Structure formats: structure tokens, C-alpha cells
Amino acid sequence: MGRFIDPLTDFGFKRIFGSEPNKDLLIAFLNELFKGRKVIKDLVYNQQENNGPVPHYRKTIFDLICTGADGETFIIEMQRAEQRFFIDRTIFYTSGKLHEQGQKGKGNWDFELKEVYFIALMDFNFENTSRDKYLHRVRLAEEETGQTFYNKLGFIFLELPNFNLEEVEIKTDFERWMYVLRNMAKMEKIPVILHKRIFQKLFHIAEIANLKKEEYMLYEKALLDKWTEYAVRKTAREKIRIAEEQIKAAEEKVKATEEKARTAEKKGVEKGIEKGIEKGAEQKSYEVVENLIVKFGFDDEQAAAAAGIPVAVVKKMRTALKKKK
Questions:
Q1: Residue 187: alpha-carbon gap to chain centroid
Q2: Is 240 left (phi over 0), alpha (psi -120 to 50) or beta?
Q3: Are 176 and 28 in contact (CB under 8 A)?
Q4: Cβ distance 190 to 199 under 8 Å?
Q5: Other beta carbons less than 10 A from residue 158's beta carbon
Q6: Measuring CA to CA, which residue among 25, 53, 19, 20 is closest to residue 184?
Q7: Would you list the domain boundaries of the chain?
Q8: pTM greater than 0.70
Q9: Is 271 exposed, middle or buried (0-12, 13-18, 19+ CB in 10 A)?
């Protein structure tokens, strides 16, 4: 273990962002993330979590649900492992939060909704995005003009593996937050660029030496879960690589076999053509010799000379002609 906890574990994520006494950390992070588009003054942590029903998901996905001062909902999720229908799941979660706002059994309702935001910290990459882009802001917009069509539903995706700024390149507080999330587990001291009050507090609560015994044990388990998940993913990738190599080798073998069959077929056709030509030439010679013997009365030597074939062949043809009679 290093000096500070890993924020990309369940324990680290919840200790930094999910504790009521430390909610100023989450508020500061979200305000930097929204860049003035929205100012969050206070948050209330909801009890419900969106962790999946399967134990595997509970080890790779952990989230917080908060309500802002204006009734808006924030779903802040840390996901370590890639999921096939990750985007579908984010839509499903946010749709559920919109649906929950329906005024069931409370008289008339005009369908006015509170804002819902989904913020995902991803320890993996999207399939089809640039490797130098780590921040994605997604909203409902008019396709041709790009003008916002609906401003109460928003998605922010942070691809942590794509954030590769060095300490000397950091300029904004948002970049400082990204640098912390990406590198804190490897730090042995607090960088100069993070000597701000909010980050001083962050490092204080993240220092392993400040953990109680029970907290330390929980953190150890969270680390074990992360390492186990990494080992499982690495093993799966290795098996996929081996399987792909085997499939490629099999395809090349099939291709070579097909090529060999085509070559053999081509040679067979050529050989057949040669035989056909030989047979045709032989038939033609027979017809010529037959005319020379029957119509013109050539002897064997004369017929052989005229047809350009051996005398022995002419003799065989003469014998065959006698049998035909």
C-alpha cells in the first residue's frame, strides 16, 4: 500500500465523496465539473444505491445518489470494469429517476420534472472515442443546429485512463481533481499544485495512517476486490487473445487447404485438356490413315510417312480396320 487510499476502490470512492461530513469535497468536484453551467450549494445523500443485483457488479460498480438544493438528482458512479451495455444502463437509471418524480395518487400533475444528472468516473475506455479525450458532456440537442433541446437531463463521462497530464501541465482545479483521481494511490507526498484548502482536506481523510482499524480492514478488502477484478479481466483478455490466435491459425489453415485444392483442380483441368487434345489428335490421325489406306491404297510405310506417325501405329490401325469389316 502507498501513503494514500485508492479513490478507484469502493472504500476510497465512498470515503472521499460519500461521507456527510466531507460532502464539501463532492460539491467542490461537481462545481468544477459543471464549470458554472450549474452552481451546487448543498447536497443531501440518498439511501438508495443503484448497485446491480449480481455480486460481480457490486464489486465493479459503486455509486452515490444525491439531491441538490433545488430538488435535482445527481447520480455519481465509479465503474472499474467495462460493461457491454454501459450506455444503455445509464439511460435506464436516469429514466428511472425521472419516472420516480411522477405524482402518483396526488391529484393533478402537469409533468414538470426536476433535473437529473448522471456523472460516471470510468476506469476503462469507450470503444470508439479518441484516446486524447477524457471528458464527454452529453445532452439532448437539436441535430442540425446543436442547440439544447432539453436541459434537465445531462450525462458527464470521465475516461480516467485518457487523462495523462503531468503535474507541470495542470492549470485548472478540474484538472487538479482529475490528477488526484488518476494518481493519488501512487503518491507519497502532496504535490505543490494541490496545496489548496479543499485538497489539503482531501489528502488528510485519504491518508491511510488516519484510518481506524475497522476502516483499514475495509480498505484492504476493497483493494483485494480491485486486484481480483483486475486479475479476472487480465485472464479473460489473455484467453480471448489465445482464442483469437487459434481462430486466425485455423482460418489460415483453411485458406491454405482451399488454395491447394484450387491448384490441384487447375492442374487436373489442364491435364484433362492435354488428354483431350491428345485424344483428338489421335482420332484425327486415325481418320487420315484410314483414308490413305482405304481410298488411296497406301502401304504401311507410305501411310506412316504421309501422316507423320510411326509405321507400327499404322499397322495397328490397319489391323483395327480389318476387324471393323
A1: 30
A2: alpha
A3: no
A4: yes
A5: 21
A6: 25
A7: 10-211, 273-324
A8: no
A9: exposed
Record the cell numbers describing residue 152, joined without a space: 434537465
Residues in the chain: 325
Rounded mean pLDDT, 226-235: 73
Grid cell listed for 46: 440518498
pLDDT band at residue 55, thresholds of 50, 70 and 90? very low
Over residues 72-124, the pLDDT tens digits come to: 899 998 887 777 888 898 899 898 888 888 877 667 778 888 999 999 999 88
Other C-beta atoms lying within 10 Å of the C-beta of residue 93: 16
- Give strand pairing partners of 119: 76, 156
Asked if 59 contacts 225 with a C-beta cutoff of 8 angstroms, the reply is yes
> What is the sign of the dihedral through the CA atoms of 220, 126, 184 and 93?
negative
- For residue 288, give the 3-state DSSP assignment: helix
Is residue 289 within 8 A of residue 307, CB to CB? The reply is yes
> Which tens digit of pLDDT belongs to each residue from 260-301?
877 877 777 666 666 655 665 566 677 777 777 777 778 888
| Cα 164 to Cα 124, 182, 227, distances in angstroms | 14, 9, 22
